[in-house]
Amino acid sequence: MKPLKPTLSIAELQKTIGLWKSRKITDSVIPKLLNLYLGLTPYMNEGKTYPVENFYEISIALAFKNAKFLTEAVKRCGSFGIMPEKNAYGMKSFYSPLWVGKISQEELPDKFPETYPVDDIYNINNTKGSSSDEKASPEGDIPLEDNSSLKNIVTPESLAAAKEFFHLINKDSTQKAQILTPLINWFQLHEGLTRKHARENLIYLVNELLIPYFASQARFMKSNHTGRLCWLSNLLKSAHGQHLLNDAARTNREKRKQAVHEIRSNQRSNHPLNEFEWTDPESEMRFYDDEMEGTVNIPEDAPSRPSAEATWNVLSNKWV
Q1: How far apart are CA 47 and CA 35, in angstroms?
Q2: CB burial string 245-272: b at 16+ within 10 A, e below
Q3: Taking the model in full, what pTM does it have?
Q4: What integer pLDDT is reported at residue 108 of this predicted model?
Q5: Listed residue (6, 126, 1) closest to 69, CA to CA
Q6: Are the C-beta atoms of 33 and 25 separated by less than 8 Å?
Q7: H runs (alpha helix) in 63-204
Q8: Phi/psi zone of residue 255: left (φ > 0), alpha (ψ -120 to 50 degrees), beta?
Q9: Rounded distance, CA 204 to CA 206, Å?
Q10: At what angle do helices 181-191 and 239-268 cross, to 10 degrees?
Q11: Residue 115 DSSP one-character state
């Protein structure tokens, strides 16, 4: 995917930022809008626009308070083309002129959004329970930050629906190949894992991260299976989706380290014959430590190791 205008002069950039400042866009929001203006391709559709179904993921990636705050900033700056729609955001998509082309007058907002105080709209650190939180959250919108009292709640029904959604994906060979198999491949490649461990990462990602995530979204219960598939696909391409993948990889990496540590601990505490040798509880292989050789296996029919200094001679089949 390539932009229509691959370069932007310093003068043009300064003019754009100057326009935003004149429209009371704060310094903390300008870099976020600039990212969108220059182009965040993972969040664009085939028409190189940012569609409404990606607004939530964009707001997460750019640290807007929520998707409503994102769209209000887009409207106020006046530099993006807007495809209007009668929904909570007043748009079905928006786009950068660097990617789609010159913006027609019809696609610019009639005026700045004046509904909310500027400091509330663009400050992502609003206090808990403020009146601006209530105003900025549209009906049926995705949840606010974790510290908001308006955050969506997981219900038994939504949890069951989320589990069923992933069960259907796993059951359909085409959907499984399109969504789940590439995730296994990603874990195997990026973590250097065996196929078995990569599958364990996927199971954790789905059961512990993705299912609770979707179960907590109010709009999930209102979506059909096709809409949910698009949502999942967009999520996995987003920065938040990458965070979930890394979280699953990190958690299971720690689990494997802990398992290895426990195995070694069990090995070193298992002295069924005497204190000078150990037996692996799983393989039942006997072994001892040698300063030169490291870990040395002991034949099953060998007598007990007589002392801490004794070494097994493979030629004479005796302790020396």
Answers
A1: 18
A2: beebbeebeeeeeeeeeeeeeebeeeee
A3: 0.44
A4: 65
A5: 126
A6: yes
A7: 67-77, 118-122, 131-136, 156-171, 173-175, 181-191, 195-204
A8: alpha
A9: 6
A10: 60
A11: S
